[in-house]
Amino acid sequence: MLAAAALVAVPAVPTLTTAFDPAGAPLHGLRILVPNTPGGGFDVTARSTAKALEDSGIAGPVEVFNLPGNGGVAGLGRTISEAGNERLVMSAGLGVVGAAASRGAPVTLGDTTPIARLVEESEIVVVPGDSPIGDVHALLDAWRADPSAVRFGGGSTPGGPDHLATMALARGAGVDPARVDYLTHDGGGDLLAALLGGEVEVAVSGLGEFADQIDAGDLRVLAVTDGDRVPGVDAPTLREAGVDVEFANWRGVVAPPGLSAEARSRLEQVFARLRDTPEWRATLRTNGWRDAWLPGAEFDRFLAAEGQRVAGLLHELGPVPPS
After folding, report:
1. Which superfamily does 121-224 belong to?
2. What is the mean pLDDT of residues 290-298?
3. Residue 62 backbone dihedrals phi, psi, to 5 degrees
4. What are phi and psi of 32, to 5 degrees?
5. Tens digit of pLDDT for each residue in 155-195?
6. Confidence of residue 254 (pLDDT cuts 50, 70, 90)
7. Residue 60, class by beta-carbon neighbours within 10 Å (0-12 exposed, 13-18 middle, 19+ buried)?
8. Could you tell me if 233 and 124 are in contact, meaning their C-beta atoms sit under 8 angstroms apart?
9. How many other β-carbons are positioned within 10 Å of the β-carbon of residue 89?
10. Bridge partners of 65?
11. pLDDT > 90: what percent of the chain?
12. Domain boundaries, the chain
């Protein structure tokens, strides 16, 4: 019901009918919708993408705007309501898949026009810089002794990357996921405030969201969920810590439904060109992201499979944790 309300409650921006610029000329009027609060993974991805598009000359000024709500379903509903708008894309990823699945939303990413999957990144297990939890082994020992004694937080909805990574860590550590004390937050900005304010003791999130606070020493990484250590991060993998878990998050861009074949192709070309620029390669390095390119049709098939995978995982995990 909330998702359906999102389709009508937010005034739609009129569709731009101006034809796309000729191939090779900067694209003007592009807008990127972020379906969560400033500071979250979708927000960082959108703003980094916009800057790289502008700096590379592929696009003129790109507007990035936030429409949080219902774990990303409000932004998804807005995107779908803009049918035919060839100058709007939404920053999307595993979090939106999980939000739609966990809430039983009447809309999914399958109702959009998939443009491209762009990046993958490791999740991190992170604590405040002055936390008494010294390392990942101390965390695991305390958690196994009393799962309810450690409060975890994530910046994504149930079924999103932070939640799924936390529950995978619990299973790998021999902790019953049903006993995990886990609070969801609407994006990395809200999660950061909860972590620094003591609402949660441990956070599981994307590296790019907390990079500045880690560099400043305000946060400390206990472990990364990737199969390999992450360059520039002084923390072991979960496997090095004795937990047989490997997990990665992904993000991309989708457009409203109802685009012409030409309009969809033009948008795909914009992001394909971006992928080959030094500006984008620098963006990947800065945020600790990996190239995970999947263009339109392939991305569409991936989204269908991902929706089924996440729905199955949520069924296995049982009740949805509180927000």
Report:
1. Periplasmic binding protein-like II (3.40.190.10)
2. 96
3. -110, 125
4. -120, 120
5. 877 788 999 999 999 999 999 988 999 998 877 888 999 99
6. very high
7. middle
8. yes
9. 27
10. 33
11. 71
12. 2-120+249-317, 121-224
As assigned by CATH, the class of the 2-120+249-317 domain is: alpha beta
Q: Which two tokens stand for residue 232?
A: 């520039």
Query: Amino acid identity, residue 225?
Result: T
pLDDT score for 30:
98
The token pair that represents 206 in the structure block: 């994307």
Distance of CA 199 to the CA centre of its chain: 22
Same fold, 2-120+249-317 and 121-224: yes
Give the β-pairing of 113-128 and 219-224. antiparallel
- Identify any residues that bridge with 254 across adjacent strands, giving them in sequence order: 90, 114
Confidence band (pLDDT; 50, 70, 90) for 219?
very high
